[in-house]
Amino acid sequence: MKESISVFLKRLSDILEFVISFILTAGIILLCLRVAGAIYKIPDLNVWPNYEDLLETCFNLIIGVELIKMMYSHSPQTVFEVLLFAIARQIIIDHSSIWSSLVGVCAIAVLFATRKFLFCNFDDADKYIFHASAKAKNIARLLSIDLPYSENDTLEEVMLDQLKKENINNEIGACVYFKSFGLRIAKKSDGKISRIEVIRAIH
Fold first, then answer.
1. Rounded to 5 degrees, what are φ and ψ at 150?
2. Domain residue extents for the chain
3. Which end of the chain is flanked by fewer CB atoms within 10 Å, N or C?
4. Over 70: is that where the pLDDT of 8 sits?
5. How remote is the C-alpha of 65 from its chain's centroid?
6. In the CATH scheme, what architecture does the domain 124-201 have?
């Protein structure tokens, strides 16, 4: 029951994020059309007093687009891109002092170092823990995954069968992988598997 509620709330939040992303997309499209319609007015100083105003507007639109990508694609890469454009905008638009520009450059360097050394594949996954006795067909339907099972197989039976095929020891932390998800033994009681974690890739 707890797992079902967790999945329901996750899907509800995904729907709300989609709606917000759609609203933001519509707003950005309208603003892009507005900017495009004002291009011929660039020589008019009352509309575009200087080049930096146009540059700032375009940067804001780009950051908005990256924010939309971050909302529908929950990955470290999209967060990285949003932060990168936001910092780059601050460096290029703001000319308050050389020290603020230096801090911005250092921040970008830290972002690139973080992406190179700290990003990993498991950052892009949803994880759910189920009772080992749960029916495999119910889990497959609940999470929309292609879980290999017979009609009355439990999650434990699917896990044990795959462990046997891959010649992996039946112990806590043991993992088996499928096309878009994986199974991991999360807990054992009296030598038997009691909890299994389903790791589902977001993309």
1. -90, 175
2. 2-119, 124-201
3. N
4. yes
5. 15
6. 2-Layer Sandwich (3.30)
147 and 182 Cβ atoms separated by less than 8 Å? no
Half-sphere exposure of 148 (CA within 13 A, CB side): 13
* Residue 160: Cβ-neighbour burial (10 angstroms; 0-12, 13-18, 19+): middle
Alpha helices in 38-154 (DSSP H): 51-72, 76-93, 98-118, 136-143
Q: Going by DSSP bridges, is the β-strand pair 175-177/125-131 parallel, antiparallel, or unpaired? A: unpaired
Tokens at 196, concatenated: 């299994």
pLDDT digit string, tens, across residues 52-93? 777 788 888 888 888 888 777 666 777 888 888 888 888 887
Is residue 183 within 8 A of residue 176, CB to CB? The reply is yes
pLDDT of residue 121: 52
- Residue 29's pLDDT is 92
